[in-house]
Amino acid sequence: MKRFAISTLLLFSVPILILAAFGVLSGPEAVAAGWAPNLTPSPTPIVNNISLQVSQWDDDTSVPMDTNDNRNRWNYIRLGTSATKDVKYINGLRFQHVSIPPDSRIIEAKLSLYYGGWTRDVPVHLKIQAENSDSAQSFADDQPLVSQRPLTSALVDWTITESPPAASWFQSPDIAEVLQMVVNRPGWHSGNSLAVIIRSTDTTEVNHYLDALSYDLRPDIAPKLEIVYETHVPVPTSTPTLTPTPTVTPTPEPGRLAIEKALPLPCNVSISGDTREWDNNVETYAACHPEWPETGPEAVYRIDLDYDNTDVHVQVFPSDTTQDLDIFLLPGADPDTCLQGAEANLLQQGLPAGQYYVAVDGYAGAAGDFKLISACTVHFPLALYLPVVLR
Fold first, then answer.
1. Global pTM?
2. Residues with Cβ < 8 Å from 202, sequence gap 6 or more?
3. What does DSSP say about strands 208-213 and 76-81: parallel, antiparallel, or unpaired?
4. Class of domain 46-231 (CATH, top level)
5. pLDDT, tens only, 197-237
6. Burial class (CB in 10 A: 0-12, 13-18, 19+), 339
7. Domain 259-378 of CATH type 3.20.20.80
């Protein structure tokens, strides 16, 4: 009888264990068999949205590849290939405090650039990549140029065929795969900075380019980056990077021109000014005339050239001829980038299209009111005139 009971127990317990092992039994039967299933569900992915924006002057730049001039204080971001010299541009946009945890999956990412009011011709063919680094540095002059930075192997083609855009903003194709390569880096951490690189391709024709606005001109409509990503870890709601109110004028830096306050200087006009209404930030223009002590206040003007190969002629006439006012032409705020200086009559030939600054400064502390006369002459390629000549 004892032997029968043991045998009977074995006959019934073995099938129960087998059924429990394969998940056939559940509830009380499984518990009775000494086994319970794993009831912990896999975490559901959490979808997050973040909105980023360029937030300081050295977080965007536009660099012409012939001169490698770091235009990080330019009011525009030039996309494409400019005229005459077949100069291609490479642009960098840096976004700070990117709150995407490691191991996240980028679902969608798109750039938005605000139309700058100038287009030469379309289509403009571009390639978008990212800086292949754990946390991108700014585009300040003491940092590597955008053209010298390592790039992701992932890239996305972007062809702009409509200019101006219907909604004032140019929106890029989805660049999720580009940003994913940065987030996948072993050194990536939430809160790091990333830089998006946009460059003209070899298929972009000469004179096909357009300008988008940079942070320097309008901080409120500086380049934006919208990202949708998913993670298994809850992430605090991201607050878009705050930008200063555009009506606030930044304090000029000592040793640099106050281009933030620059007044427009159109071509072929005569305007009046007074250096006594300006600050004295620059005392020498080392790249032009380092021997001249320009210790008076300097009035600053902005001149925009729409075409390559343009001659610029600027003259200054002080009301008080005893006040020695000089003229300087620069591509930016740094006096070390001075292109030319003159006592009263400045002529610079063959300038590429872009934005330049004219400073009226006082020699040995001179200051006073003046009249400024500008003239521009554009030298178009001969090919543009041939159809008219042969007609």
1. 0.54
2. none
3. antiparallel
4. mainly beta
5. 999 988 878 888 888 999 988 888 899 999 999 997 665 54
6. middle
7. no
